[in-house]
Design goal:
Layout lengths: L11 H26 L12
Length: about 50
């Protein structure tokens, strides 16, 4: 199964590192979207003096 994620000539170490980076990115983006869903926590710029 791991072979299917790698590219020709790529080591298993590189393949695993790439998968871990993608997983970290997905986790980061999910947290960001979660923050954006809490619109009540935001203050419009025109209300800041």
């Amino acid at each position: 199964m791991l072979k299917s994620f790698g590219r020709k000539g790529e080591t298993y170490d590189r393949t695993i590192r790439d998968l871990m980076e993608k997983a970290e990115y997905v986790d980061f983006m999910e947290r960001q979207y979660g923050i954006l869903e809490k619109k009540e926590d935001f203050v419009p710029l025109d209300e800041i003096s």
